[in-house]
């Protein structure tokens, strides 16, 4: 675990990750409609 990140940087990373995760799940849901989140 890296603890030298500031809180703001950590929040930004989480937001970026969440955005990427949403687009990733969206692509999966488009490719595989039978999968429900």
Give a topology summary.
Elements: H1 7-31
What does this structure look like?
The chain has one helix at 7-31. It is mainly alpha-helical and 37 residues long. It is rod-shaped.
What's this entry about, in short?
This protein is mainly α and 37 residues long.
Keywords:
37 residues
Largest sheet: none
Oligomer: single chain
How many strands appear in the DSSP assignment?
0
Distance between the termini: 29 Å
Mean pLDDT across all amino acids: 81
| Secondary-structure content class | mainly alpha
Helix run count: 1
Spatial shape: rod-shaped
* Helix and strand element order: H
Gyration radius (Cα, Å) is 14 Å
Helical fraction equals: 55-70%
In percent, how much strand structure appears in the residues? under 5%
Unreliable segments of 5+ consecutive residues: none
């Amino acid at each position: 675990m890296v603890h030298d990140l500031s809180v703001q940087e950590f929040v930004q990373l989480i937001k970026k990750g969440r955005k990427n995760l949403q687009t990733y799940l969206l692509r999966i849901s488009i490719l595989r409609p039978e999968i429900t989140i």
